[in-house]
Specification:
Number of strands of chain A: 10
Distance between the termini of chain A: 32 Å
CATH topology of the largest domain in chain B: MetI-like fold
CATH class of the largest domain in chain B: Mainly Alpha
Largest sheet of chain A: 6 strands, mixed
Strand content of chain A: 15-25%
Largest interface: A-B, 41 and 29 residues
CATH architecture of the largest domain in chain B: Orthogonal Bundle
Oligomer: heterodimer
Structural class of chain A: alpha/beta
Strand order of the largest sheet of chain A: 6-7-8-3-9-10
Shape of chain A: globular
Structural class of chain B: mainly alpha
Number of helices of chain A: 8
Strand content of chain B: under 5%
Order of helices and strands of chain A: EEEHEEHEHHHEHEHEEH
Order of helices and strands of chain B: HHHHHHHHHHHHH
Radius of gyration of chain B: 23 Å
Number of strands of chain B: 0
Chain lengths: 290, 273
């Protein structure tokens, strides 16, 4: 269970004419995501959905509100008084608030993340990438290779174990990122536009792979996407974000049976509703900005 | 036993690749068309009397002198001696500069405390350290090693620090989310992300270190290439002088080739092939 309570994120920026300004990336997002579901965060680019996902993963601290995973707060709350601020900065002089610990490898929460541009380590081979991730999760040395091979097999990378990521195609790199995330057997996977960089054929195959693996393992997936079709095909629930400020616009539950067909009339109908929503927002862009 | 044998095989194979690569640079047809005429001119001009032979000894004379120095005057042990000092100094520079650089790149708090100090000290040219080093360490091995260390230290430190600081945040985030400790981040992410810059900086360190090797040996000690070089000046032995200079050139070239090979091996993932 992932729970975000009134999460907001503000940035301060400096304009070209050297005046200060504030940006509200995420405004008061409250969301509860049940275990074992696939939830899509859908919206145009710049609507704060990626920022929100990083807040869920503990890679960014929310300015207000907090995120709980199974009742445990993801990041310690930011200081609000001057005294708290001093203590906070003293505590994080050496270790950043996002660090795990100095010497012991241990994740704070049982989550894995797939980034938009993969972020697999280019200096490690395919096999080393997955084995390194297993090492971070404290899997004993003897078991690492076998386990890595199992998950690389699941995504069909058994033939390129000794290749480096730069030698792989974009789709294969994405599979590697998927294998790396799955290999640690997390309960939650966060995905930031995972298939945006792949061409349409690769994308559909990767989506099918993801669904197959998801039904095998049964994990919670939170996915950011700007493609309504992808969201409709994959998810149980679609949360539509709107920009300026990034906030929840609407929520749709997708009840269609799995395996779904991409041209399912139910999905078509939902898609036209979502598209109508986006069109309306584009026309009335200034109506709800604060 | 067979594992040991395969390691030996691998070693010799890599050694073969190395010499092939290094020699291939020098003995390409394109370069030979330049090198051979130059060597010919070196031999012919003094012999034809176009330049004074006492000032510019021909190539063959230099070669004979090298043979004579190696066989009768213990020049090889001088070379060994110099190399020993050089590697000690360079080694100390590498094992201190890389960790400090990585730490400064990793943490702002450490960076703010240490970096200004190095920024103040580094503009002092290494030769300017010679007098005070002689006073503190005396004339001898520690002083020479310290000077070589000093010359190689700053380039390695600053380049490592800069590269570590520029480490891509995506890699850090993805390692952290899987549970990496900060030590693991430094060893497996910051270090490898900076490996190209580190090897580049060691190349600079080698060049600077050779400069200080010669200066240190000229000022103190009774052994080494720099000492022999300085001595030839006093006795006006031009062929010996040329031998020393050529030896230094060959050593520098060889070390750079070694580092290029190391780069090829360690940063193999960068080329993508």
């Amino acid at each position: 269970m992932i729970e975000s309570r009134n999460v907001s994120k503000f940035f301060s920026i400096v304009n070209d004419d050297r005046t200060a300004d504030g940006i509200t990336a995420v405004l008061s997002v409250s969301l509860a995501i049940d275990d074992g579901k696939i939830v899509s965060l859908l919206g145009p680019s710049g609507c704060g959905k990626s920022t929100f996902l990083e807040i869920l993963g503990g890679l960014q601290a929310p300015t207000e509100g907090s995120v709980f995973i199974d009742g445990v707060q993801v990041l310690e709350p930011l200081p609000s008084t001057r005294k708290e601020m001093e203590a906070y900065s003293r505590r994080h002089k050496l270790l950043s608030p996002f660090a795990n610990s100095m010497f012991a490898n241990s994740p704070k929460h049982d989550i894995a993340m797939i980034f938009q541009d993969y972020a697999v380590f280019p200096w490690m081979t395919v096999l080393q990438n997955v084995m390194f991730t297993l090492k971070l999760r404290g899997v004993p040395r003897r078991e690492r290779e076998g386990k890595a091979l199992v998950y690389l097999g699941k995504v069909g990378l058994t033939d390129s174990l000794r290749k480096y990521p730069l030698q792989l195609s974009g789709g294969m790199r994405q599979r590697l990122a998927l294998a790396r995330a799955l290999s640690v057997e997390p309960r939650i996977i966060l995905m930031d536009e995972p298939f945006a960089a792949a061409d349409i054929l690769t994308r559909e195959r990767l989506q099918d792979d993801l669904l197959r693996l998801w039904s095998e393992i049964g994990i919670t997936i939170v996915m950011v996407t700007h493609d309504p079709e992808e969201a409709l095909y994959l998810s149980d629930e679609i949360v539509v974000f709107s920009p300026n400020p990034g906030s929840i616009r609407n929520r749709f539950t997708v009840n269609a049976q799995r395996p779904r067909h991409r041209n399912d009339p139910e999905l078509r109908e939902l898609k036209s509703r979502i598209n109508a929503l986006f069109r309306y927002d584009a026309i009335h862009e200034n109506d709800y900005s604060i | 036993m067979s594992k040991f044998k395969s390691i030996i095989c691998l070693f010799f194979r890599e050694l073969g690749y190395f010499f092939k690569g290094a020699a291939g640079n020098l003995f390409s047809w394109e370069f030979l068309t330049v090198l051979l005429p130059l060597l010919g001119l070196w031999e012919l001009l003094p012999r034809l009397g176009l330049v004074r032979r006492t000032l510019a000894p021909p190539l063959s004379e230099v070669a004979v002198t090298f043979w004579d120095m190696a066989a009768n005057r213990g020049f090889l042990s001088d070379i060994g001696n110099s190399m020993g000092k050089f590697f000690l100094g360079l080694g100390i520079a590498i094992i201190t500069a890389i960790p400090i650089g990585l730490l400064m790149g990793w943490n702002v708090s450490i960076r703010k405390r240490i970096l200004p100090l190095f920024q103040l000290l580094s503009p002092i040219p290494p030769p300017a350290w010679v007098p005070i080093t002689i006073i503190i360490f005396g004339v001898g091995l520690p002083m020479q090693i310290f000077l070589i260390f000093l010359a190689a230290f700053y380039p390695i430190l600053f380049n490592t620090y800069q590269a570590a600081k520029d480490t891509d945040g995506r890699y850090l985030a993805s390692a952290r989310i899987f549970g990496a400790s900060e030590l693991t981040l430094i060893l497996h992410v910051y270090f490898w992300h900076s490996i190209g810059a580190i090897i580049m900086s060691v190349k600079t360190g080698v060049a600077m270190g050779l400069v200080m090797l010669v200066i240190a040996e000229m000022y103190g000690g009774r052994t080494g290439i720099g000492y022999v070089l300085n001595e030839t000046k006093d006795y006006f032995r031009i062929p010996q002088m040329v031998v020393c200079m050529a030896t230094l050139g060959v050593i520098g070239w060889f070390l750079i080739e070694v580092l290029k090979f190391a780069e090829l091996k360690l940063a193999v993932w960068k080329g993508g092939q």
